[in-house]
Design a protein that fits this description.
By secondary structure, the protein is α+β, with helices and mostly antiparallel strands. The protein contains 23 helices and 23 strands. α5 packs across α14, α7 crosses α14 and α19 runs antiparallel to α21. It starts with 38 loop residues before the first helix and ends in a 21-residue tail after the last helix.
């Protein structure tokens, strides 16, 4: 049975010690579909704080919907990208520590087969554009996967195939085009081509279907893929038009010939090519879209490096360019990654993050935020015949040193072998709630819109069970942002009660730092206090009611081993994370209260709740924003303001009432001026008055930008949202400068009665900032210098002062339904 505040919860998957961490973000629930007239408005208004100055910090980047705008901030998310050893990546990301004798023998037979060598040779032929290499690579990869399945060393349970993309992807604002994608054959091919894999087909029908698939996967998809279709991706860059393969030495040639496949194996492979509806089952090399260039010589492949059972590879992966490269050996192993694409202007980038790195990270970001609920993304980058693997998580990313998959085909096959054996969770997809694209053929009709029905089923009901509760999955109302951070999803759920009534709930899924206390810890502390002090039960009207709280282990990969600091003196390392799910009642944003009296009443409720939390249970919220001030309609018909989202909250130690942080906390338009300054060189103390300052920004934001529950056209105060933290800090300081001729934003028609309150409140902050500056510059009077209290700005910023200000503008009683104790009939 649910309690008034925190109701029954499912047993957590694991137990974790919790502690502080500030690099988190969260977007809370919003209004029902009927009131969500402008989805972009919510993407603009609701956002929380990640660790540095990455994409999630600057929601204006996504509002622009331009890749270059997003990439300007994405470079910060790559600041601490790590370079790792390829074998280490294979072990921890692809879960291959050694191979059985049979697995190794099969992979070597494929690598040395004439069919595979012909495909490699075709890939190396001269081309004029990088697009001309896509089909060749797809045929190489799919041929190898097909052979592995035929030989029985992999089941390829997900039906992994490579598919040319080279097309924009549906389901996000920005236009990004990964060159080749790893997809599930049954979803991305069968549905688009009208092939039913369960149909009984004769040999001729199988042959025709195989041909259809073989032609389809080497072309851009029609219609477009969606981000939810992909398991991974590969990006290609053209450096040399003709790829020169390394010559075999006599010793190596002899070694390579010993693994040649028998005629029987070849016959089996050729037969499978026509009998199984897969792309590269064909043993024939794909026709080249570009003719061979004059002077291109056919050379034989170099024998692969060994990855033997029970011992590591005997031939280390070269970090430089292959000896056959036209450019010779590079002085830097990472030059090919850092060099911008041809005919592109290099970024002026002190962080040395290239356009290529940003491009790859952009694909990962879209998959993390708009494709599925993911913990990580695996990608790959190809420069001609060289390949590197990439991994992106919510804490850090890494890339391997490059190696030549042309001259080391065995290593390449080991990688493909690992990819075919990955489960959905090992690909990074949370199998608790997968996107519809992985269960049915369905494409997103809107190319530049977010897919709110990402987890719905076309013809039926999608159920989700959490603990003892089963829900119907409805629309996504908030998508994650950025590359680093919590990556929080907010999804509407419906529950059919025993009475038959339907109730709406909100699921929030976040990939949170293990060291960070879950938000339900703070709500549990309130429950415990109220249980011991029944007279304080009223506070539960102003906090969210929780139904389910659950932790899900992210044990699909040993992230720490791959992304850890490795003794870095700066302490930069992987931040261990866990997926946390919390289900709570649906709440509504405070700006839907466009009757001034009701809005002011709910706003005051939230301020009083904030004060109560600080004084009674020593909780400082630290993320006062327009998305976290909500309201509910009580069973008694009253409106109650609700303070929501405690992901950034901290327990305030009595001996140290002002927690400090090296990361900014809060949502940029509502962050206090003090907290917008550089937090790296000097830790920032987050004080109670900083939250009170944020309350002012929310008040001004709502009454100046909203009318009838929706943002007006060309709303003011946009300069609080765009630019760097320092730029926003400067603009806010200008806003408070006393200037009788300066025009400041005025309330909309709905909120005109609150004009006086806004003016007086702004004037209070003007005086407080003026006195603070004079004290800092030692220009204040000796008396003020001696008594000035920094935490209350000389006594100007306190709860009591705010209540006195609000009391100057009493509520119009006809606008108020009632107080917590119920309505007074004489006033209704």
């Amino acid at each position: 049975m649910a309690s008034e505040h925190s109701t029954s919860s499912s047993a957590p998957v694991s137990e974790h010690e919790s502690g502080p961490n500030d690099s988190l973000e969260y977007l809370p629930p919003i209004t029902p579909q009927a009131n969500r007239q402008n989805f972009e408005m919510y993407m603009t208004s609701l956002n929380s704080t990640p660790p540095n100055q990455g994409v999630a910090d600057h929601f204006a980047a996504e509002r622009e919907r331009k890749v270059e705008q997003v990439d300007k901030f994405l470079r910060y998310d790559l600041k601490h990208e790590k370079i790792v050893d390829l074998d280490k990546f294979i072990k921890h990301a692809l879960h291959i520590s050694d191979l059985s004798e049979r697995e190794e023998r099969v992979l070597r037979s494929i690598a040395s087969s004439q069919e595979f060598d012909a495909l490699i040779e075709g890939y190396c032929q001269g081309v004029q554009r990088e697009e001309n290499r896509y089909a060749g690579f797809v045929n190489i990869a799919n041929f190898a996967i097909r052979r592995m399945v035929e030989e029985g060393i992999t089941k390829n349970a997900l039906g992994l195939i490579a598919h040319v993309n080279d097309e924009g992807v549906s389901g996000s604002w920005t236009e990004r085009k990964p060159d080749i994608v790893w997809i599930m054959e049954r979803i991305a091919v069968y549905g688009r081509l009208g092939i039913d894999p369960t149909e009984v087909r004769d040999a001729e029908k199988l042959r025709r279907d195989a041909e259809k698939i073989a032609q389809a996967v080497i072309k851009a998809p029609k219609p477009r893929f969606a981000w939810g279709d992909f398991l991974g991706w590969a990006e290609f860059k053209l450096v040399d038009k003709v790829i020169k393969r390394a010559q075999k030495t006599p010793e190596v040639a002899e070694q390579g010939s010993s693994g040649a496949v028998s005629k029987k194996t070849k016959t089996k492979s050729n037969k499978a090519a026509t009998s199984n509806p897969s792309t590269a089952g064909s043993s024939k090399a794909a026709p080249q879209t570009e003719p061979p260039q004059p002077g291109a010589k056919k050379t034989k492949a170099k024998a692969p490096a060994l990855l033997l059972r029970n011992r590591p590879a005997t031939n280390p992966i070269s970090s430089g360019r292959s000896s056959g490269s036209k450019r010779g050996r590079s002085p830097s192993a990472d030059d090919d990654f850092q060099r911008p694409p041809a005919k592109r202007v290099a970024l002026k980038d002190e962080d040395r993050v290239s356009l290529i790195a940003l491009q790859c990270a952009g694909y990962a970001m879209e998959m993390l935020n708009h494709g599925a609920i993911r913990t990580h993304v695996i990608g790959s980058l190809f420069h001609d015949g060289k390949m590197r693997l990439l991994l992106y998580t919510r804490s850090r990313s890494c890339r391997t040193q490059p190696f030549s998959f042309i001259d080391d085909p065995f290593k390449f096959l080991v990688i493909l072998f690992g990819l075919t054996n990955l489960s959905l969770r090992q690909w990074g997809i949370l199998d608790l709630l997968t996107p519809r694209y992985l269960s049915e053929y369905r494409y997103c009709s809107e190319c530049h819109r977010l897919d709110s029905g990402l987890f719905k089923i076309k013809d039926g009901v999608r159920y989700l069970t959490l603990g003892e509760h089963t829900f119907e999955v409805k629309e996504v109302i908030v998508f994650p942002r950025g590359l680093l951070g919590r990556g929080s999803w907010t999804i509407i759920l419906e529950k059919v009660e025993a009475s038959g009534a339907r109730t709406r709930w909100v699921l929030k899924l976040s990939c949170q730092a293990v060291a960070r206390a879950p938000e339900w810890n703070f709500l549990d502390a309130v429950d415990q206090f109220v249980a011991e002090n029944p007279d304080e039960k009223w506070i539960l009207n102003h906090l969210p009611k929780v139904l389910v709280k659950k932790e899900i282990e992210l044990n699909a990969m040993d992230f720490e081993a791959l992304l850890g600091s490795d003794g870095d003196p700066k302490g930069i390392g992987y931040e261990s994370r866990i997926m946390r799910a919390i289900v709570y009642e649906e709440l509504f944003p405070i700006y839907n209260l466009y009757v001034p009296g009701l809005f002011k009443k709910a706003f005051t409720d939230v301020v009083k709740c904030h004060e109560w939390l600080v004084k009674h249970v020593h909780i400082l919220h630290r993320d006062i924003s327009v998305g976290n001030l909500m309201f509910r309609m009580g069973d008694d018909g009253n409106v109650y303001g609700v303070l929501n989202d405690f992901d950034l909250a901290r327990f305030v130690n009595k001996s140290d009432p002002s927690p400090s942080s090296q990361h900014r906390t809060g949502t940029k338009p509502f962050v206090a001026i003090d907290l917008l300054r550089d937090s790296v060189s000097r830790p920032i103390r987050h004080l109670v008055r900083h939250d009170l300052e944020s309350f002012f920004y929310v008040f001004a934001w709502v009454i100046c930008r909203f009318h009838q529950g929706a943002e007006i056209v060309s709303p003011p105060l946009m300069d609080w949202t765009t630019g760097t933290w320092e730029e926003v800090r400067t603009r806010k300081k200008v806003y408070f400068e006393p200037d009788p001729e300066k025009k400041v934003p005025m309330p909309t028609e709905n909120y005109e009665p609150l004009q006086g309150l806004l003016d007086d409140w702004r004037e209070t902050w003007q005086i407080a900032f003026h006195d603070q500056q004079h004290v800092a510059l030692k220009r204040a009077s000796p008396e003020m210098m001696a008594t000035y209290d920094e935490e209350t700005m000389g006594g100007m910023i306190t709860y009591q002062k705010l209540y006195e200000l609000f009391d100057k503008y009493p509520l119009d009683l006809e606008d108020v339904i009632g107080e917590d104790t119920g309505p007074d009939e004489s006033e209704v």
